[in-house]
Amino acid sequence: MATTRMILRAIKKRPFLFPASSHSFSSSRHGSTLVVAEHDSGAVKPHSLSAVTAATSLAGHGNSSVSVLLAGSGPSLHQAASHAASSHPSVSQVLIADSEKFKNPLAEPWAKLVHLVQQQGGYSHIIAASNSFGKNIMPRAAALLDVSPITDVTGISDAQTFVRPIYAGNALCTVRYTGSNPCILTIRSTSFPIPQKSNDSKAEASISQVNLSNFDEALIIFFWISADLNKSRYIYQTSQDDEGPDLGNARVVITGGRALKNAENFKLIENLAKKLGGAVGATRAAVDAGFVPNDLQVGQTGKIVAPELYMAFGVSGAIQHLAGMRDSKVIVAVNNDADAPIFQVADYGLVGDLFEVIPELLEKLPEKK
């Protein structure tokens, strides 16, 4: 009991933890948006640049400024900040939190950082991409701020009205946010194209350091209350040694299903993707069978893609898979089952044996220059 009273007294003395006015519309800067961005090798990741595009859509509905939040440590963080500062004319400020605590994207410190920055800046909207980074951090940040997030946004009608898919993408739902500030969103990057750099000269956005002087104290007290201290820790990260484009942003995606039978046969998909300069995708069935790693899965529980060309070989077209690729510009399907659901969404369909079709394509297609 003595420990509990001590913690409660500490909270009352520290308004930055849970300020009473944190949900008041009047306390927030009118029409300002914070983009929580991910970076790698000194550059903002494409998914986060799509979140910047979404934030600029809000600018057309009365939002006056866009700020980008980056966290991490070392020279790559500052390189990424310079990249963010020149990424879009609507970006007015880049905030950097330089600390070893944010070197790895663990939800606990990152969510608390978002909470802290919100208390310092009073933003009306907070946006992140709906990828593993955003899905990991934003729900926890929303819980700390005591607001309900709106996830997988594909369209912005106005500052409080958004469109998102439901029923595995078979219907679109228009949602109006009536809660307190901030309005927290995760967006599907495929619905918000990456902004093209303009040749027009424009001063870069200012770069500022986040005041982390109270962060450690806030983090410790919060974790005492929630009993979450050291519940998660970073172990290691693995990545594919692949020279091809990123699956989530590729212009061409070649996907294989369980009909390829084994990992050796899946090399047909990889060879075709390489010849077309595309990325390799897979169905959940192919991933579960061990043909390819799960970071290549396309679908509702995998990656959402919308390439210029999507080619599906041996893919039946389960509703969960269609949810991840139905926005592709041109869909080509090859399956030996004429009744496969994939043909209902395909622009071009061929009923045939993929083991005959792919080698023929490899033979007749010219090498990509």
Mean pLDDT: 85
Do you know the CATH architecture of the largest domain? 3-Layer(aba) Sandwich
Count of individual helical segments: 10
Any idea what the shape is?
A: globular
Describe the structure.
By secondary structure, the protein is of the alpha/beta class. It folds into two domains: 32-194 and 203-227, 3-Layer(aba) Sandwich (Rossmann fold), CATH 3.40.50.620; 252-364, 3-Layer(aba) Sandwich (Rossmann fold). The chain has helices at residues 2-12, 46-59, 75-85, 107-121, 132-145, 215-226, 267-276, 284-288, 319-322, 354-364; strands spanning 32-36, 39-40, 43-44, 65-72, 91-98, 125-129, 150-153, 155-158, 161-166, 171-176, 183-187, 206-209, 252-256, 279-282, 309-313, 330-335, 348-351. The strands form four sheets. Strands 7-11-6-1-4-5-12 form a seven-stranded parallel beta sheet, sandwiched between helices. A five-stranded parallel beta sheet has the order 14-13-15-16-17. A hairpin with a 2-residue loop joins strand 8 and strand 9. The chain starts with a helix and ends in a 5-residue tail after the last helix.
Key words describing this protein structure:
369 residues, alpha/beta, Rossmann fold, seven-stranded parallel beta sheet, 17 strands, 29% helix, 22% strand, globular, disordered N terminus, Rossmann-like_a/b/a_fold, FAD, DHS-like_NAD/FAD-binding_dom, Electron transfer flavoprotein subunit alpha
